[in-house]
Amino acid sequence: DTGVSQNPRHKITKRGQNVTFRCDPISEHNRLYWYRQTLGQGPEFLTYFQNEAQLEKSRLLSDRFSAERPKGSFSTLEIQRTEQGDSAMYLCASSPTAGDTGELFFGEGSRLTVL
Amino acid sequence: TQLLEQSPQFLSIQEGENLTVYCNSSSVFSSLQWYRQEPGEGPVLLVTVVTGGEVKKLKRLTFQFGDARKDSSLHITAAQPGDTGLYLCAGAENNAGNMLTFGGGTRLMVKP
């Protein structure tokens, strides 16, 4: 396993369109996280799954944002009716549960540009 | 939401100089992590500190967790151009470390 994989790496869309990002975590990791990072800032927590259960979603930025992890493996983050303010890097991370040191293993991110 | 403030935001130094980056909060964290992020990549963990007053060394990097577990510092000795990057501190909101709150980052540039 080469690590957390995210795609697409770059997405350019027009305002009002829907976009979906996919994250494939490290295979033995139970936990999966989504973060948003705007230019020059640290990552901002969005949501978190343990297996298929979404344990925290109150920090999703608006009801236009939703995430799923239906089989407890890969996850998708969807943004509906995109706005220019949604332009950012969307980072996915995973971590194991057993022997948890708290370390998050991040993917390379999906950069969204909304025109 | 617990907030972490990092300072300075930007730092440009010459190769061989020493530097310290600070991470401060008014809240207590169960643990604190430092990550380094290079352009176009995700953050990569450097160290985790758990115990108040703990000091960890990683080659030329020294990390300290404050006694009250509200603040941390990263000191780099004899900086090298390869140290250039964005340094992020992140606090764990519970002992499982499953939700990290990140600071705004310190962008370091080390000039040869």
Shape descriptor of chain A = globular
Reported for the largest beta sheet of chain A, the result is:
7 strands, mixed
Structure class of chain B: mainly beta
Query: Which assembly state applies to the chains in this document?
Result: heterodimer
Rg of chain A: 13 Å
Please write the string of helix (H) and strand (E) elements of chain B.
Answer: EEEEEEEEEEE
Total helices of chain A: the number is 0
Written as H for each helix and E for each strand, in order along the chain, the element string of chain A is EEEEEEEEEEE
- Uncertain residue segments of chain B: none
Helix-strand category of chain A:
mainly beta
Summarize the structure in words:
- The complex is a heterodimer of chains A (115) and B (112).
- Chain A has 115 residues and is an all-beta fold.
- Helix content of chain A is 0%, strand content 48%.
- Chain A has strands at residues 5-7, 10-13, 19-24, 31-37, 44-50, 53-56, 65-68, 75-79, 88-95, 105-106, 110-114.
- In chain A, the strands form 2 sheets. In chain A, strands 2, 4, 5, 6, 9, 10 and 11 form a 7-stranded mixed β-sheet that branches. A 4-stranded antiparallel β-sheet of chain A has the order 1-3-8-7, with no helix packed on it.
- In chain A, strand 4 (31-37) and strand 5 (44-50) form a beta hairpin.
- Chain B has 112 residues and is mainly beta.
- In chain B, 0% of the residues lie in helices and 53% in strands.
- Chain B has no helices and 11 strands.
- Chain B has strands at 5-7, 10-14, 19-24, 31-37, 44-49, 55-58, 61-65, 71-76, 85-92, 100-102, 106-111.
- In chain B, strands 2, 4, 5, 9, 10 and 11 form a 6-stranded mixed β-sheet that branches. In chain B, strands 1-3-8-7-6 form a 5-stranded antiparallel β-sheet, with no helix packed on it.
- In chain B, strand 9 (85-92) and strand 10 (100-102) form a beta hairpin.
- Chain B starts with a strand and ends with a strand.
- The model of chain B has no long low-confidence stretch (mean pLDDT 91).
- Chains A and B meet through strand 4, strand 5 and strand 9 of A and strand 5, strand 9 and strand 10 of B.
